Amino acid sequence: MPSVFKAETFVSKSSNPTSLSNKKKVFHLILLEKGRICITVNGKEYACFSPSVICLNENQSFEIVSEDFLLKVVSFLPEFINKNMTISNMQKKNYNDFCNLHDFLKLTPFINHNFENSYISDLSPELAGFMSALINECVKQYEQKPDWYWSCRMRSYFLDCINIIERLYYQEFGGDDRTNLD
After folding, report:
1. How many other β-carbons are positioned within 10 Å of the β-carbon of residue 47?
2. Angstrom distance (rounded) from CA 51 to CA 121
3. Which end of the chain has less Cβ packing within 10 Å, N or C?
4. Which residues is 47 bridged to in the sheet?
5. Strands 62-66 and 27-41
6. What is the distance between the alpha carbons of residues 106 and 95, in angstroms, rounded to a whole number?
7. CB 33 within 8 A of CB 126
8. DSSP state, 113?
């Protein structure tokens, strides 16, 4: 079973192009903080510009071959958020009803199989910086484990990122899954 949560920062300079790829069966949150990347998702190439977020699900393999960028990749299984949010539960027809009943995030930007709806480019530099700080706090809590509540704080910081992404998604693309706050 893949790790439930992993966050990594990647920096590439023009003199040293970087290639990243991942074919693991996990979800990926890619926060592009600076620069431009060429990302290939399931064999199709896209250009993405900072600041932006890319949300990929377990069936979307990706490869990034670019230079001059700063990005964070968070790889996670949905059960990191809640043990009942397994990939098999998310694939059931009544998943939306399940989320509404238990007040779960729907992870709509991730479970959407259309890349254009998984690429959220409506980020301000300040919001991208805030999300980057939240991800850094997740990593800090995981590495330092300062007390008994580190895992709760780590999950809370990550949920803040997911909430931001879902709100941006609904603002940009609309949809029936919006909450009253969107």
Report:
1. 10
2. 7
3. N
4. 38
5. antiparallel
6. 8
7. no
8. -
